[in-house]
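Hi, here's the filled form for the chain we discussed.

Project: internal
Contact: R.S.
Residues: 137
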Amino acid sequence: MRIVGMSQLGCPCGHTISDTTDSLPYKGYVLSDVRYFPFLQWLVDETQSYVEAAQAGRVAQWFLQRGYGQDYLDLKLSHGEMLHDYIHAKLDRLMREMYECKACGRIHMETREDNHFARYAPDSEKVNGIFAGPDQD
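And the returned structure, exactly as it came back:
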């Protein structure tokens, strides 16, 4: 896989896939089945632990025990922002990025090594828009 820059990668069809902003309709994430349920259990356990710490007035200690420094606590973020950072950091270590080439439909999936991608071409040989738009509930 040809990586053009920190935020771009090249497709064999010649198209350059760019990742310079959020909410890209051609980008997605994969969380393997062997990590999915353990992550959900971790989320339940850590949420319960956080709620108990918050009720006891021990949020700072809770974060310090999980490797956050005083500098982070001094930012005085809201509970939601702090939990977002904590959960996102865990999820980010478990997920892999995927991109669909807007020109040929080829899927580029991050391998176990950062910034390395395996490629898969669709049987239909067309762009399927597999990541486009929010699901309707």
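Let me know if anything looks off before we file it.
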